[in-house]
Predict the structure.
Amino acid sequence: MSDPILSVRNLRVYFEVSGDGWFGARKVLRAVDGVSFDLDRSETLGIVGESGCGKSTLARAVLGLVQVTSGEVRFMGHDLVHLDHEKLREQRRHLQIIFQDPLSSLDPRMNVGQIIAEPLRSFFPRMSQQERQEKVIDMMRHVGLLPEHINRYPHEFSGGQAQRIGIARALITQPEVVVCDEPVSALDVSIKAQIVNLLADLQAEFGLSLLFIAHDLASVRHVSRRIMVLYLGKVMELAPWDEIYRAPRHPYTQALIQAIPPADPKRARTNPAKPLGGELPSPIAPPSGCVFRTRCPYAVERCAQEEPSLRHVNGSLVACHLAEQIPKPARTA
């Protein structure tokens, strides 16, 4: 087996926040708390979890867009955490991101051609204007945009078309790894499927490695080879996609699957979705032991006293003391 293109080990991203009152002691927000994973070449790793679980912070830490507190991010042999500014900038050509809100990520003062060409001007300053335009037009065709729209502005496009512009901008430098930060969450259901299929086609064509971030398991099902479930900055479960959907081991993963609305209307009436109850604890003051225990129906005294480590359970990596004892959920995806 070849070495992973991206390897993350014990990654932590902590932020200091103000305490209560004028003279309150500063507190630590643990946005990402000891995350490890590998990403193979041409693989898609889905990263899921509720809002506030650290998914986007993890993505930005991998790309060097936020300061890492501790840990290691290795990309093709380079330790990105300890690279100086210039060397990190050189690597960023190979590591790109597609943002959640397509319209807000595009400069309204620039036309489509200028937006897509911007990374080329930054990373290839000696490239001629004609060559840049040829590459932009070629990429527009790849993402399903009409070349004759090259001089239009972002406000003239729908949300789905705007996301195609963002995808073209991310791929124009021929990156190795692309972080998709909830790229379909702001789109209509029918458009979501189109964008997911487009990303799958582009991945196959260009050999891309993708980190696909979503807040629900339904969005990553058809695009991911493996899925990592995050909760309060920690990995709860990491497994092949079919294991996640067929036999989820962690109670949080089970709850996320129970919350997926059934596609079949008849099934929806007899076995409806069940949203996860309870409030997400604060990452400033997470629960002791297992961070999910305050919302877990199976929690026991040990869960409050001892933090579970990731361990192998029937083909999955699971952070749960009771993984072997928890029954299979009544409804799977």
